[in-house]
Amino acid sequence: MAEMRRDFARSGLTEAVARHDTPALFDWLIRILSLQGVSDAIAWRYMDQHGSVSFADLETTLAAAPSCPKLTSYWHFDACRFTKQTFLCSEPSHIEACPLPYHDLRNGRLNQTAYSLFLFLRDVCGGDLVGWIDERLAAADAVEGPQRTARFRQALLEPLGSIYGVSSKVLSMALADLLLLGDSMRERWVATGASMIAIDTLVHNWLHRSGCLSELDAEHAYGAGCYALGGCATIIEAASQHIDARVYCRDGPATYPRLVQKAIWLFCTEANLDICNGNRIDDRFACRDASCPLGDGCARRPLFPAARLNR
Q1: Helix or strand or coil: residue 88?
Q2: Which of 8, 24, 138, 197 is most deeply buried (CB count within 10 A of its CB)?
């Protein structure tokens, strides 16, 4: 954790949080949100070659009051439907003068995400993302009852999730880093960041193969169900309540769902332990890896047993 905080500080983001520097946070966020739809390596390579888009870029283009009515405000920006390949959108009479298509991002969806995020920060957050987060978490903390961190997550994920093109997984990853590393003295930030769980197919499939989903009557397809009540995120958060994460991360919080999720991911991903994934396991059948450290603790449930019939 200490090394991560040092890296975050070296990037200038700790200072950006302290200064409530929304433009700097936008520039960081839009690059993280670009890690969708392709591998991280491809996404970063494209940005290295073509650049990204900055808060200053969009502030300048929108200051010119473009004619497209969808760029009037965050609430007007709906169903833009710009596609880079066809150069078409839902307001074709305005597209030649519209600034949105002319940023060289990887696809038109990301162009829309950039403008949606900018307008959200300008119109919903009043230009102060840090202050908006503080206010949302304080309001959630004023509500009495259990599941404090769940209220914190909902207070941020629900409104931010309405930004065009933002997936729950990447949004959770970005918020986890920002809240955990941005200011260790903001207790609500640290508690919320530690509870931000990013569910990808590796984590979901591990919960299926290991039998966790079936034993807890929580079987569901990968996707929105992973974040629904009783889904993958709920299961991991419940498990984290029984683990003192300070044994593994001394300067982190005692209850650390994000760390539990990452441990599962590291167990599965090819670049790390490379034990439980589709490259190692024929998912038509139960896993046959006798050397797996989970041993008899794993139910070894196949992902696609019905596929045996099509052999």
Answers
A1: strand
A2: 197
In this structure, the dihedral spanned by the alpha carbons of residues 126, 34, 188 and 55, taken in order and rounded to 10 degrees, is -30
Is the CB of residue 11 less than 8 Å from the CB of residue 28? yes
Q: What share of the chain is helix, strand, coil (3-state, %, to 5)?
A: 55, 0, 45
Cα→Cα distances 162→127, 209, 279, Å: 17, 32, 35
Distance, in Å, from the CA atom of 165 to the CA atom of 278, rounded to the nearest integer, reads 27
Question: Alpha-carbon Rg of the chain, whole angstroms?
Answer: 21
| pLDDT in single tens digits along all 311 residues of the chain | 778 888 899 999 999 999 999 999 999 999 999 998 888 889 999 999 999 999 999 999 999 999 999 999 999 999 999 999 999 999 999 999 999 999 999 999 999 999 999 999 999 999 999 999 999 999 999 998 778 888 898 899 999 999 999 988 899 999 999 999 999 999 999 999 999 999 999 999 999 999 999 999 999 999 888 988 789 998 999 999 999 999 999 888 899 999 999 999 999 999 999 999 999 999 999 999 999 999 999 999 999 986 655 55
Residue 267 DSSP SS3? helix
- Would the pTM count as exceeding 0.90? no
Q: How far apart are CA 300 and CA 283, in angstroms?
A: 10
